[in-house]
Specification:
Layout: H1 2-14, H2 16-28, E1 36-40, E2 43-46, H3 47-50, H4 54-63, H5 66-96, H6 103-135, H7 142-156, H8 165-196, E3 200-203, E4 208-209, H9 211-224, E5 227-229, H10 232-243, E6 248-251, H11 254-259
Antiparallel strand pairs: 1-2, 1-5, 3-4, 3-6
Helix pairs in contact: 1-8, 2-5, 5-10, 6-7, 6-8, 8-9
Length: 303
Amino acid sequence: MLLQIKVQLRSALFYACVFVTAATTMRTSGQTNMNVVAVVLGEEIHLSVLDPPATLLAEKKKHLDMSAYQGWLLDQRASALLRYAESILFARYAETAEVSLSERDIQEYLVMQQRASGELRGIITQKIAAVKLELAINNLSEERRRELSNRLSILASHPLAGSSTQESANHETKQVEKACLFLHVRNINRELYRQYGGRVLLSSLGYATPIDARRDYLLECEQRGDLKIFDNNIRQKIRELICKIETGDIVEGIAAERAMSEKGLPQKGVAPERGRPLEVPVPLEADVPQTQKVPQTENVFKE
């Protein structure tokens, strides 16, 4: 079962771009008058596909002035296009770089997760017992009893609190799926770092993302013509999104190599360089593939 889930998930990840672009084509068929804002691996992306649901658009129009609304809408469109582009281009990278996901990787990760789940299950069990014990007190106020009942309901609804075989099986299946997804992304990031190097962003949860390597790969895709963006405002906003750092620390050199090591997590004793600004690299012409130059767009990732 584990192998079957792994293969199914890998296929879904590798060919996610097929479903994304197919949906795009279906939603825009018969609407040739609509603007094409981008092309990713030959697939046209229309503006309507990037827009949020109509109900959300109406709500934002109602509560925002026109300037704020236009700014919000630009953010939404750029973020959606970036997600489309990354899902398609990194799926293609996984295929061409032959990024693999071994049974051993999955088993080791699941063992680690099971250990953590066991500790959490014990904590939940203790809290449920403590709440039930307090609820057994006769002279509790109604307010306190409602509070405890609500807390008990929340604790009992946690997947690890379930005792039935079906619930346990469902939880195990979800854990395997999460493990496959996490490890697949981790292996792509590791291969990107091996090929491009650069700095690594460590999130507050300990995930390591090779920010320079991912951007360099997208830069090559843009230079080859695999990614073309025709809307200047969306192009500029995407550049800002790519340069934006979320919560975390930046490391480079030996610290980055350790962060991208076998476990893909920051190592003890490594002191991250805090407060480092994320600069946009401007590669030399010799460093950029010269095939299929795209005259329609500027370089999305350069200043």
